[in-house]
Amino acid sequence: MGQQTKTHSKVTEEPVCSICIANYNGMGIIEDCLNSVFAQDCDFLFEVIVHDDASTDDSLTVLRNCYPSVNLIASDINVGFCVSNNRMATIACGRYILLLNNDAILFPDALSTLYDEAQKLSPAILGLPQYDAKTGVLVDIGSLSDPFLNPIPNLDPQRKDVAMIVGACLWIPKSLWQDLGGFPEWFHTVAEDMYLCCLARLWGYPVRVVSHSGFRHWMGSSLGGGGVKANRLSSNVRRRQLSERNKSFVMVLTYPSPLFQFIFPLHITLLVAEGAILALVRRDRVLFRDIYLGCLKVLWAERERLMYLRGQIQSGRKSGLRQFWSAFLPFPQKLRLLFRHGWPEVT
Fold this sequence. Notes:
Helix content is 41%, strand content 20%. The protein is α/β, with parallel strands linked by helices.
């Protein structure tokens, strides 16, 4: 996974929270992120860890020269979001970990809000309302999910229990992170937050959102982004490849039986149909080959590992089917988006 060089922080007391920021070519955005962290209005000690994933811009120079108190891990090769966060969590000294994107900007009371909520609960994954940094519009207060693990923004401030907390700002006790095993490094990036939240729910741990405070997020600054642009769905092949593959992995690993036995074959059928229709509409067979057929090939190639890991994960199940499914909605989110925005642009 490449060599690592470390610049240790100047924290001498044990921090309450370790803020872990994965950075790759973050010039122009990570400064606002770090400044929002160091401007936090809280009465407890925290440390800041940044993993630079072999950036090719001047990120490392800025981090070393302007933020000497940051505990910096510099990787000499690009290892991806999952490995980056696992490395930071391994050396984190805090009782809690806050995973924070380099393009996220915390509200001044974000840390104190998360910490206060954490004191009221048994070990839980927590999140905050997410706002678009460009427009200031509320994006979600955590996410619900459809049966096929497509996130559905929760906009109800009264709803606390959610299916997923976005990894751009995710709070978790370090002990719970260790119990769950962190991010699967073979995911590389995309849907690792979905995996962690689904696993937590399966094992009986709450996944909750706090409806006040929040963070601003420069939506779509990583992997070319994905979402609605000019009222049209927009993504790219790489993001769709990782998304479809990793969502399928999460489904295999964390869906309890008999939910898995019913949903997963339906998921594969709809995935093939979606790929075929999209290729016809866009007159581009490469989309079907690279995204959808590629997903099926990887699932087949990884079938033994997936089923072995599924057995291990399901053996730790503590939640009932109703409890696991309580933050899922039945109507497919892709159909809702199709009706609203038309066929996606995939570049």
